[in-house]
Specification:
Length: 108
């Protein structure tokens, strides 16, 4: 895990996404190569946007209830939540530049 990201679980997921500050949740697994590729870009994005965007990581193998509740079928899947509502869903690995572009409205 990165130093700028937080870990969430099935038990604290609802409170983690309830904030009015956008929270990007990265659904990942230890065995997933593309998920590991996303670690550095997500950590950098979280560090550069502290106070504007929270980046949380949810291990799908350890937290299957949340994965099922949000119909996450493939990983990495990244979902932006604000006030408990899903605002944007990104599926698949991306570069940091692509992430910044696709999340621009939440980083303003």
């Amino acid at each position: 895990m990165g130093q700028n990201t937080v870990t969430v679980t099935d038990s604290d997921f609802a409170s983690a996404i309830a904030s009015d500050t956008p929270t990007l949740v990265d659904f990942w697994a230890e065995w997933c190569g593309p998920c590991k590729i996303m670690d550095a870009p997500l950590d950098e994005l979280a560090g550069e946007n502290e106070g504007k965007l929270t980046v949380a990581k949810l291990n799908v193998d350890e937290n299957p209830s949340t994965m099922g509740a949000y119909s996450v079928m493939s990983i990495p899947t990244m979902i932006v939540f604000q006030n408990g509502e899903e605002k944007r869903r990104l599926i698949g690995a991306r570069s940091k530049g692509q992430l910044k572009s696709e999340l621009a409205e939440f980083l303003a």
